[in-house]
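Tokens in:
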């Protein structure tokens, strides 16, 4: 009868444990904290300077730099995407986010550990067959599972998933900035080349004028003042060349570094003159609402806001009771063969309940911290949207006004060119003073230089508009390959003595 009573009690305890397990598993379906919902922001229907009656087509952002129609630029963009250190760092952050996500997801599953040991013991009591020295063998298996009653672990997984999304958007944002910087610096480099060529042509023409003035002076048809003014103007124009050369070299150095190379790597490659890239205009700008879908920095801010929202639930769940199931099996024996005998095996299994009773308000404060951080990310998201809208509006206005300015500068340069040609002819024939020719040549050089800078500004504004609209790299990026490939990571002896010295010398 006692044996029967013990059996029924054990059976009842087992049933109660199973019932508790099923109840906890059912409760594990609930979560605490706010559920994330993508915010709806009020955006204008059109851009500020757009005609209301003419809706704009969606922006053409795929490989927008190719519409600058420069093969060298296309090559540099490809090389920068594969060689940029900023892109490599962004890919490493994606790998980190993926690993963090897997780490968070692992907390949803049970954990198990095994152990074994063998010891030699000495006892003063003669209780063993072998005498006072004997061996003891032990083996064990421990398992535990934290039941996610109120969704703390699931909120952590949710936050990690949003973090992974944010890391991917960070890579897209890095690519957008990189391609824009490559295009802008390339256009500036070609602009400096054109301005250097203009300065050299102008200086050569002014040297010819100075020689003509000296000839007329020797013939008594000109004054020494005219000779000095002519030589001074030529020298002044030549003085612009070193400054332009330095700016050109710095731009080429920046391009090289952006592609992941040494600063002088592209010097020979870009030495050959090429025209300033001219974009194909006009370009469609779409509607403001498309910014939410195309700008990676806006999407990054939205994912960070979502991640902060999930962390509120993670902090809130810490204020609720927690249940975990633990179990272990242990066996011990004086002989290795005794480990499998029923008499040497013991086991335990059961739930553990933890209830936060008093913590000085720390858990509630942690929730308040998470809510405040969520609010900050929400404000940052709204700010990123406004900044994106501002960038597009500014780029649209700058490009439109620069095109108008370019037309006026082209007309100005054309008139100054005619005036300089006529002034030279009149000066050679003696029908005009040297001051007229001096002023005409100076005005022509200034107008042509301003026209070249305007052409650079148009291309730069075109690049800025595409960046503002969210145009970046739309191809595949392999981010799973690590930058540093570790070798000899298994068990091995650390370098010591001569090996350590050789390793230090190699590094």
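Residues out:
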């Amino acid at each position: 009868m006692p044996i029967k009573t013990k059996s029924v009690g054990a059976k009842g305890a087992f049933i109660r444990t199973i019932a508790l397990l099923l109840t906890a598993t059912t409760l594990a379906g609930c979560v605490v904290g706010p559920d994330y919902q993508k915010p709806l922001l009020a955006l204008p229907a059109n851009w500020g300077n757009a005609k209301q009656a003419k809706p704009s087509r969606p922006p053409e952002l795929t490989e927008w730099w190719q519409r600058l129609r420069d093969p060298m630029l296309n090559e540099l963009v490809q090389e920068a995407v594969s060689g940029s250190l900023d892109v490599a760092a962004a890919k490493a952050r994606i790998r980190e986010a993926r690993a963090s996500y897997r780490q968070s997801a692992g907390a949803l599953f049970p954990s198990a550990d095994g152990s074994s040991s063998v010891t030699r013991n000495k006892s003063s009591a003669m209780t063993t067959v072998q005498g006072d020295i004997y061996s003891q063998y032990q083996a064990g298996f421990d398992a535990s599972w934290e039941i996610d009653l109120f969704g703390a672990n699931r909120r952590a997984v949710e936050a990690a998933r949003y973090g992974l999304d944010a890391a991917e958007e960070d890579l897209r944002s890095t690519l957008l900035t990189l391609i824009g910087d490559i295009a802008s610096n390339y256009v500036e480099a070609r602009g400096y080349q054109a301005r250097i060529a203009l300065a050299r042509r102008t200086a050569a023409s002014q040297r010819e004028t100075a020689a003509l003035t000296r000839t007329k002076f020797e013939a008594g048809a000109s004054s020494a003042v005219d000779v000095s003014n002519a030589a001074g103007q030529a020298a002044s124009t030549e003085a612009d060349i070193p400054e332009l050369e330095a700016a050109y070299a710095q731009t080429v150095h920046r391009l090289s570094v952006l592609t992941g190379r040494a600063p002088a790597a592209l010097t020979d490659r870009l030495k050959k003159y090429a025209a300033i890239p001219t974009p194909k205009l006009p370009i469609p700008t779409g509607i403001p609402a498309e910014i939410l879908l195309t700008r990676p920095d806006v999407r990054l801010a939205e994912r960070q806001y979502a991640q902060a929202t999930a962390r509120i639930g993670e902090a809130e769940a810490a204020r609720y009771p927690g249940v975990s199931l633990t179990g272990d099996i242990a066996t011990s024996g004086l002989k290795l063969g005794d480990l499998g005998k029923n008499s040497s095996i013991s086991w335990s299994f059961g739930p553990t309940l933890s209830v936060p009773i008093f913590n000085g308000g720390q858990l509630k404060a942690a929730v308040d911290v998470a809510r405040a951080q969520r609010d900050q990310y929400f404000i940052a998201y709204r700010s990123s949207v406004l900044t994106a809208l501002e960038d597009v509006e500014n780029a649209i206005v700058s490009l439109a006004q620069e095109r108008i300015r370019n037309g006026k500068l082209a007309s100005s340069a054309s008139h100054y060119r005619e005036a300089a040609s006529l002034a030279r002819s009149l000066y050679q024939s003696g029908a005009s003073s040297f001051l007229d020719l001096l002023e005409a040549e100076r005005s022509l050089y200034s107008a042509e230089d301003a026209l070249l800078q305007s052409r650079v500004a148009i291309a730069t504004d075109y690049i800025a508009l595409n960046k503002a609209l969210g145009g970046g790299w739309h191809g595949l990026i392999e981010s799973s390959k690590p930058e540093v490939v570790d070798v000899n990571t298994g068990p091995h002896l650390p370098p010591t003595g001569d090996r350590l010295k050789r390793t230090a010398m190699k590094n």
